[in-house]
Description:
By secondary structure, the protein is an alpha/beta fold. It has helices spanning 11-24, 47-52, 69-87, 99-110, 130-141, 150-158, 174-183, 205-208, 211-224, 236-243, 260-269, 278-286, 301-305, 316-325, 342-350; strands at residues 2-8, 30-36, 60-61, 91-95, 114-118, 144-147, 167-170, 198-201, 230-233, 253-255, 272-275, 291-293, 309-311. It has a seven-stranded parallel β-sheet, with helices on both faces. Strand 2, helix 2 and strand 3 form a beta-alpha-beta unit.
Amino acid sequence: MIKIITIIGARPQFIKAAALSREIANYNNIEEIIVHTGQHFDANMSDIFFEQMEIPKPHYNLNINGLGHGAMTGQMLEKIEEVLVKEKPDWVLIYGDTNSTIAGALAAKKLHIKVAHVEAGLRSFNMEMPEEVNRILTDRISDILFCPTDTAIENLKKEGYDNIDCQTIKSGDIMQDAAIFYSKKEQKPNIEIPEEFILATIHRAENTDDPSRLGAILEALNEIAKQTPIILPLHPRTAKIIQNSEFKTQNLKIIEPVGYLEMVYMLNRCKLIMTDSGGLQKEAFFFAKPCMTMRDETEWVELIKNNYNVLVGADKGKIIDTFKNHIFNLDFNINLYGNGIAAKNILNSLK
Length: 351
Ligand code: UDP
C-alpha cells in the first residue's frame, strides 16, 4: 500500500487535484489523504470545486488564510508537519506554486518524506512574483519533478538538475486531463450569456497591487467591451481593490467567481480569453480559443511561440490594438501539453 498526502489550498490546485484524485481512485493499493490548508476558503473559491468536481472530502482542514505571506507559510509549515508526523505517508504530493506548495514541500523534506511536485520546472524569470520564488524553492527540494512541458524540462536542465539527486519526468499537464474530463459536464452559469463574448479574469498581485497597471487594464477592457461584451468573474482580491477605487468598469459584466463547470461552459463558447491567470492561458488552448495575457512574461512560452497567446502587459494601447488587429493562430491541432494523460503518467511513476 502506498500512502500519499496531497496538499492543496487554492483554486487552481483543487482543479489539478480533482483530475489526479480521479485516477488515484482506480488503484486499490494507493491511499490518498487530502490536506486543505485553507488558503482559499470562500464557498465559490473552494467548496464549489469539491462538490462539482467530486474531489474527496479533505481529511484535514487547516483553516489558514487571510495572512501575509510569512505568517501564512509559517503556520502552514507547522500544521502540515503535525499531520505528516501523525500520518507517516510515503509521498507528499504538491501542485503548482502557492504558499501551500512550498509549505508542504518543506515540511515533508525536513521529515525525510518523499516529495512529488506536479507542475514542476516552470519559470517566469520574474523573482518579484511570489509564485516564482515558491516554484524555484519547491523544485529544488522535490524528489520527483513532474514537468508539464518540454520547456519545463529544459529550464531544469539549465539550472543543473542533471546533477541533482532527483528525477525529472515529463508527465504532460494535469490541467488538460481536467479540461477533457469536465468539459463534458459543463453547466450554464446563472447569468445571461451573450451570443458573442470575451471571457476575462484579473487576479495576479503584480496587476491588482499596482494601481497604474490595474487602471490601464480596466480602461482597456472597458473600451473593448463597447464592441464585444466582456464577462469578468472577479477574484475576491481584485473585487476588494476595485470597490475601494475610482476605476471605471461600467461596460463590463462583472460576476462573482464561478465553479469550474460554469467556467468550462464559458470556455466552450467565448470568442477570446483575456487574463493574467496561469491556468486560463492553457485552458484557452485546450478549448481552442485565442488568448491575450495581461502580463509581461509567462511560464507558458510555447503558447506565445505558436501565436495562440499574445503578451500585452498592462499597456492600454497594446491591449486594444492587439484585440483589434492581431491575427491569432487558429489551428489548435498540436500536442503541447500531453493530451490528457498526465494523471496516468504521474501515478505510474509514483508506483
Ligand atoms: N476559474 C474558475 N472560476 C473562476 C475563475 C477561474 O473555475 O471564476 C478556474 C480557471 O478556469 C482555471 C483556474 O480557475 O482553471 C485558474 O485559477 P487562478 O486563475 O485563480 O490561478 P492561476 O492559474 O493563475 O494560478
